[in-house]
Amino acid sequence: MTKNPDLATAFHQLHRGPELLLLANAWDAGSARLMESLGARAIATTSAGVAWAHGYPDGNALPGPLVIATAAAVAGAVRVPVTIDIEGGYSDDPQAVGSLVGALIEAGAVGVNLEDGGGTPELLCAKITEIRRVARALGVELFINARTDVYLRGLVPEVDRITETTARAARYRAAGASGIFVPKLVEPAAIAAIARAVELPLNVMAWSGLPAASELATLGVRRLSAGSAIAEAVWGRAASLAKAFLRDGRGEVSSEDAMSYREVNAIVARR
Q1: Which run of H or of E encompasses 221?
Q2: What CATH number does residue 81 fall under?
Q3: In angstroms, rounded to a whole number, what is the distance separating the alpha carbons of residues 231 and 182?
Q4: Which residues pair with 114 in a beta bridge?
Q5: Against a cut of 0.90, is the pTM above it?
């Protein structure tokens, strides 16, 4: 699949529609096809799930070529918009990050997640600016979802987190971000305050204590991500089944939630 400006436009519109955009993060082409078959209006990858699927730990360890190959496989497997989680861009060099994103756009991605992590806001701004330049040169209005880890990493004292988050969001918006992602933000008043202040679609992550999706929409949230939760559950269930099989060698590995061979094959057979 190659770059598709129409899918990019559609992805932006999903952040403006009346319904909260729910993203059940995938990690490969098969899981993306599954999500789409269940009604997902867009596909987002989980960097952790993608890294684990390739035998790497999460945390900017996945080689760029594997990120690009995953993007191409996922975008080629579905018809809905695809956004790729690229952690911190796998480099501190904004030009290198821009080059990676250019390849992802050519592979069919219409969005990226890019995080500040433990880095400075200045560095993330430089990466966003370069990504926006590259995307526009390719003729795609890429959705750049700028993730700030103020809450996730506790970068400042709790009393200062709303102020710090909104200040970073303003800088990322000025640099060219399309949306703001704040994982581990769960308190309703804080969600509402940040949603009002950031002037961009607010993305939160499914987390213990987070209000229901219907309430999130009333608080101003536009996008809710599963993150690595589904991939973690799959790994846990696979480990449980494999452990039982390796213990007694029986071939009747079963699960009450298992899909049949025929069902799975039908999902991935469609082109």
Answers
A1: strand 221-225
A2: 3.20.20.60
A3: 20
A4: 146
A5: yes
